[in-house]
Amino acid sequence: MADRPDTDTDTVLRALADPHRRQILRLVQHAELPAGRIAASFTLTQQAVSQHIGVLKQAGLLTERREGARRLYALHHESLAPVRELLAEFWPDALSRLKKAVETAHPRPGKGQA
């Protein structure tokens, strides 16, 4: 993480801290959605949803594409890299532990065994 400023990570984490913003990201993680469809998924005002979208865009978590008068939003998956890198620092051996747990629960037969 030495080549990425901590401010990027902090900005992404602050944006992810709000449950409404996380729900917006869930809505757009697989396909672009127009702002109106995103807003319709909430009991919040259109203005409040727009503010949340603005925070997510500023953090780099959302891409915006204009199609005529509509604005379409999608998750920018690569922007989650700083968070993945931060978590990897705290779980450097997570895959090794998972591998060991799976191998313990489901041992492979040794050579010559069927």
From TrEMBL:
Keywords: DNA-binding, Transcription, Transcription regulation. CDD domains: HTH_ARSR (cd00090). InterPro entries: ArsR-like_HTH, HTH_ArsR_DNA-bd_dom, HTH_MetalResp_TranReg, WH-like_DNA-bd_sf, WH_DNA-bd_sf. The keyword ATP-binding does not apply. Residues 1-95 form the HTH arsR-type domain. NCBIfam families: HTH_metalloreg (NF033788). This is ArsR/SmtB family transcription factor. It comes from Paractinoplanes globisporus.
